[in-house]
Amino acid sequence: MTKYSFLKHEEANFLQSEEWGKVAEKCHHKPIIMDLENGDSVLMLVKNARRGRYLEIPGGPLIDWDKKKVVEEAFRKIKEVAKSEKCVFIRFRPQLLNTPENREIIKTTGSKPAPFHLHAQNTVILNLEKDPEELLASMRRQTRYEVRRGLKLELTVEKGNSKELFEEFHAVQVETAKRQNFIPPSMDELEAYREIFKDHASIYVVKTTKNLSMDGKKVIEGEPEGEYLPAGTKICYGLFIDYGVEVEYFEAASTEYGHLVPGAYVMLFEAMKDYKKKGLKRFNLWGIAPPNQPNHRYARVTTFKTGFGGEQVEFIHAQDIVINKVKYLATKIIEEARKKKRHLS
Fold it and tell me: What is the DSSP string of 138-173?
């Protein structure tokens, strides 16, 4: 991915970076970076799945979508790659807002809406060019209260990217996944993030500094009696990946005490301040439920994330370009069933 291509498109994030291609390669997918018109380039991933081999373009392609000839030429080349790699279909989710105008542009690619989403199609993005007090003021009242409550409880936030910390995060996330019924990334995937993104991939962890009551509501002074949360108790974790002008709250995990103490609220507020100091412009909370879907599996986390203010963003839905119609039909049936089972609609 050329530096020029990346800097030219401010909407870009790590999904179209050379590093993301290297992560994919470590996870046994084939990355292909191809030059396009006007100095642009596109990252494509050849993925082998039981439902069929396909070409994925995450967060892209990054092109001048308002120029018809540029779009046509880009997808002509992309289709050639898909055919040469014997892919059943191409799946892409561009960094384009879901507007009537952009939906018309997408139609020129010959694509159709995919049966499954791809990479935080609906999300919340905060403007890090605001100062911390402005960010705090723009939060929902209850969210702001929880941030302040966590600070009053003197929770501390630490960060790092050591192998040991990533392993600790993985162990806690596996337990979180059992409680909340989701599939976490493998340790191999996490290690790939750490090795390739280096200090652009950080684990944040929230701990107590004082003994707290078991309900997490007050600090216990002096020698505690009975049950309590001791100082040093770990509450929650977050994996953040930053690239270009944007940072993603990419993965999360919590201990059994996460619902008692507002650690996640404090963690996100501290991360916002850190990445603002680092010079980033956008804080992407990475994935919420689509509008008007109260039964969606992301509904609960949507309430949490939207409380931080910011802009609720909906990108164009993931699109498929069919190469092999017969094999694609099987893919569509499988993914529609999976989507229903996972409460993603």
Answer: TS-HHHHHHHHHHHHTT-EEEEE--HHHHHHHHHHH
CA–CA separation, 39 and 287 (whole Å):
31
Residues 119 and 115: their CA atoms lie apart, in Å, by 14
Q: What is the mean pLDDT of the chain?
A: 93
Q: Are residues 284 and 140 in the same domain?
A: yes
0.90 surpassed by pTM = yes
Residue 236 CA to residue 228 CA, distance in Å, equals 18
Strand order in the sheet with 311-314: 156-160, 201-207, 234-243, 246-254, 282-284, 122-127, 311-314
Q: β-strand 201-207 against 156-160: which pairing, if any?
A: antiparallel
Q: Where are the beta strands (DSSP E) in 37-109?
A: 41-49, 52-58, 89-93
d(CA 230, CA 237): 18
Q: How far apart are CA 273 and CA 263, in angstroms?
A: 16
Residue 340 confidence (pLDDT) above 80: no
Contacting residues for 42 by C-beta, under 8 A, at least 6 apart: 16, 33, 34, 36, 57, 60, 61, 62, 63, 74, 78
Strand-pair partners of 55? 46, 90
Least Cα distance to 167 among 199, 200, 197, 203 occurs for 203
Does residue 326 contact residue 155 with C-beta atoms inside 8 Å?
Answer: no
What is the separation of C-alpha 181 from the centre of its chain, rounded to a whole number of angstroms?
Answer: 18
Q: Which range marks the domain in which residue 321 is found?
A: 3-119+317-341
What amino acid is encoded at 256 in this protein?
E
Question: Is there a single domain that holds both residue 67 and residue 163?
Answer: no
If asked whether residues 174 and 268 sit together in one domain, one would say yes
| Cβ count within 10 A of residue 150 | 23
User: Tens digits of per-residue pLDDT, 283-314?
Assistant: 999 999 988 888 888 888 999 999 999 999 99
Query: Residue 219: beta bridge partners?
Result: 212
Instruction: Check which CATH number belongs to the domain holding 224 and give it.
Output: 3.40.630.30
